[in-house]
Amino acid sequence: MPVRFTKKVLTERCQKYTKTWAGKVLDRPGSLDKRSWMQKNPFLHKHLHEIQNVYDSGYGMKILSREIGISYTNFRTIFLKYLGLKCRTGTNVITKKLREFRKEKAAKEGYFKNWPTTMPFLLQSRGLQGWYESKQHGKKIWLRSSWEFIYCRWLEEQGILYDYELRSFKLKSGKSYRPDFFLQNNTIIEIKAPRYNDRKWKYEAFKEEFPEYNLVVITDVKPYCKRSYVTDIKEWKKIIGKSKAYK
Is 105:3 a contact under the CB 8 Å cutoff? Predict the structure, then answer.
């Protein structure tokens, strides 16, 4: 059985009222009508304050949504979009309380144990990981995404020497940064989709603290595709599907 967070963090009155109130909101026809109705509802002044305080104390939205009894998507729609719940961003999203819960969950369930079977939806992800047979290095390299596969293969076809995740760098913030590809002349390539904009601070910090390196962040891998983007993604899925790591 999956490990669930069982501690009650909301008062019973807030929990029951919120679930009833959320159902009424979702039943209303349009977003403008929803917003207008909520502004006239006393919940906005009573229970939203309690939910905000609980969230600020370190609990996550998924824990709150499960306790209230609504989906995570509906929780975000109602409380972020319509009520303006102030949420954490960047490196502050994961709090100490959430880390402790995840640590307990991982210890009981096993971190990503047999994940291709238990979580097959990850096989459809653009961040699909797997082994790549590097001709340049004469060994297998564990790549962390299909984008990295596309770029890595392009480097080898162009005859460009590289090392993958050669080393990590300790930043002044205390965080570590391990870039993707190390090329000649101290050039570093980071492959990252635009949806990971919250990590820009790390790249800027690296450029400032390690000026001897030339960091290039690639946010569009299509120019490096061998055939087409869709075809190359399918090829990568086929490669890792045959990998021993998935047997």
Answer: yes
b/e sequence 17-28, b meaning 16+ C-beta within 10 Å: bbeebbeebeee
Name the pTM for this structure.
Answer: 0.49
Percent share of the chain, pLDDT over 70: 74
Burial of 239 (0-12, 13-18, 19+ CB in 10 A): middle
DSSP of 189-245: EEE--GGGGGGHHHHHHHHHH-TTSEEEEE---GGG-SS-HHHHHHHHHHHHHTSGG
Rounded CA gap, 237 and 190, in Å? Answer: 21
What is the C-alpha R_g of the chain?
Answer: 23
Q: Are residues 221 and 158 in the same domain?
A: yes
CA-closest candidate to residue 23, choices 61, 71, 81, 85: 71
- CA–CA separation, 189 and 202 (whole Å): 14
Residue range of the domain that includes 197: 123-246
Q: Is the same domain home to 133 and 241?
A: yes
| Same domain membership, residue 127 and residue 90 | no
Helical pair 12-27 and 31-39, crossing angle rounded to 10 deg: 140
pLDDT bucket at 29, cuts 50 / 70 / 90: low
